[in-house]
Amino acid sequence: MTVTYPSSLPADRPLYGRFLRRVQAAFIDAIVIMVAIFAAVFIAVTLNSDHLARTLGFSIAIGWLLYEPLLVALTGSTVGHYLCNLRVVDNRTGGNINFFKAVVRTLLKAVLGWLSFVTMATTRRHQAIHDLATQSTVQIRNLTKASPHHYRGEQTDLSSAAMPSAGRRLLVIGLYLVVVAVVFTFIIGMAAENLLSPACLNLSRRCTRGEEIAQLALGGVALTWLVVSIVLIVLGWRGRLLGARMARAES
Predict the structure, then answer these.
(1) Around 191, how many Cα atoms within 13 Å sit in the side-chain half-sphere?
(2) How far is residue 69's CA from residue 106's CA, in Å, rounded to a whole number?
(3) Do 51 and 149 sit in the same domain of this protein?
(4) Domain span including residue 207
(5) Is the whole model's pTM more than 0.85, yes or no?
């Protein structure tokens, strides 16, 4: 099975699914699995059979575990991938990845969740962590059925001579992350000291309603810290942070 390209484009130019397109595929797959679960529960309740309920429950559990690995290994796509015109491709062969890789890929995606997709913005072929670990990419299956906002080409600028060295980018990213960590740690520490009582902090008594709201707010600050750190990593690796910027071409 191969990816189809219009005659006006080179056949050796793979185009990669964008983040939102891949999220849509994952959402469709989640719906497929949920429908299967609800159908099994409905059948078990309707027939009122404990044996059937156990059998269906076991079957659904196995089906949920094997759904993505089997479909990706056999056809290159889950239902969501297919409906979103995507295909998982083995980097080495250009065909489907094997079953073992498909299992590893699925497990990593399940464990890391959306964090696995962060590297899509920092890799030439828009690979998530589970793609990198299994030497795979997610490509457009048939470009004639895709819109321009569904895909991106290879990010050749990441290997441009104008890009600072990887070591320099990593160093600058690290410095930014340290500064951000110090700032957010100070903010969270000061807020906790002023908004939460020692008894609440030490869990020696139940926190008041106001303290519970303050804890939620501090959780939001911590989440902001995570988001800011991810953005800095992406910008830094793409050569857009002061201290490790990609050189601009002279006009």
Answers:
(1) 17
(2) 7
(3) yes
(4) 160-237
(5) no
Q: Do 3 and 141 form a contact (C-beta atoms < 8 A)? A: yes
Mean pLDDT for the stretch of residues 18-42: 90
Q: Token digits for 7?
A: 């005659």
Count of the separate structural domains present in the chain: 2
- Per-residue pLDDT tens over the stretch 53-87: 677 777 777 888 899 999 999 999 999 999 999 99
Give a yes or no: residue 1 inside a domain.
no
145 and 37 fall within a common domain = yes
Report in angstroms the alpha-carbon separations of 37 from 18, 57, 61, 67. 29, 8, 9, 13
Domain presence at residue 216:
yes
3-state secondary structure of 16: strand
Closest by alpha carbon to 237, among 102, 124, 74?
A: 124
Tens of pLDDT, residues 216-247:
999 999 999 999 999 999 899 888 899 888 87
Same domain as 90, residue 40: yes
CA distance 33 to 112: 19
Residue 177 lies in a domain: yes
